[in-house]
Fold this sequence. Notes:
Three copies of one chain form a homotrimer. Chain A is α+β, with helices and mostly antiparallel strands. Chain A is about 20% helix and about 35% strand. The first copy, chain A, is globular, with a radius of gyration of 15 Å. The model of chain A has no long low-confidence stretch (mean pLDDT about 95).
Amino acid sequence: MNIIRHDMGPRFSEMVTVDLGAARLLYLSGQVAENSSLDITGQTREILHHIDRLLATQGATKQDLVSVTIYLRTVGDYAAMNSVWDEWVPAGHTPARATVGAKLIDSEYRVEIQATAAIAATGPVP
Amino acid sequence: MNIIRHDMGPRFSEMVTVDLGAARLLYLSGQVAENSSLDITGQTREILHHIDRLLATQGATKQDLVSVTIYLRTVGDYAAMNSVWDEWVPAGHTPARATVGAKLIDSEYRVEIQATAAIAATGPVP
Amino acid sequence: MNIIRHDMGPRFSEMVTVDLGAARLLYLSGQVAENSSLDITGQTREILHHIDRLLATQGATKQDLVSVTIYLRTVGDYAAMNSVWDEWVPAGHTPARATVGAKLIDSEYRVEIQATAAIAATGPVP
């Protein structure tokens, strides 16, 4: 069993991967926009790009997502967030998902996305 | 490693199962009541019925739940939600659980439940 | 595949462990302070102590945490919660993390922490 921490900071790691024999689970930290002045579509786009980038470091893609939790500052942003999500999420590979309203740490954040993915653990661990 | 998506929609799948060698993890989407005009006990009952139904498609039952997150629109509904939960949850097989207050996507939703289960992966994948 | 429930109550278990062949996943319930009259630093300290204690029953430690979700009643408590977290979290082993604001079940609760850990499943199950 092997735990690897990616983009590791002193407080948390952006992604933690766990080898479970045949498979590897990838736990991502809650992603927020770096440019928090963007509107909901801009922030969602930035976050989904962060997720693509983190997954890619392990040879994974958005097709490997198994479960996603989306926190919205304002539930009224649901449709606008989904307009970006729906273009991004791969047909035939949609994850389980829950979306709820929550206060976010920075008052400018409009959305935060927490994701888990799973890939085959056939190769050596990078 | 095998990921299977159940009740798959273009936006999300109601359940995603991941084979991890000896075991299979089942990630369920946040479940809400279809009849959102029901009160908290009625909505909780409907949601737990959805969970039973989703698990059953994989030969799993509520005894296989390992972790559950419950989002309540009003934390004052905690006791009423629990009255339904307590009758439903199987003695000797209670999952880990967290319950928090959150705004839900539809203002009529009073509760949303997100669940993870685990079963043996001994047979062929349906 | 083996599911074991620890500190099991009729409503939920404080921790559920799942054997997945090479590894064991540990799902913890949302932890809150027993002494809810404590301030944010006191409640965070108590919760992290609960987590240490639950993990220890399986021979695990905070170094084995892979993913943590922190719910704050008041996002303004973020810095004070982190001051306790930063002293506690082990350098070189920080988990993935998400922190959001949420109403908590008891109005005195200021923080609730939900955690998942992973350990090697090499020995017999206690």
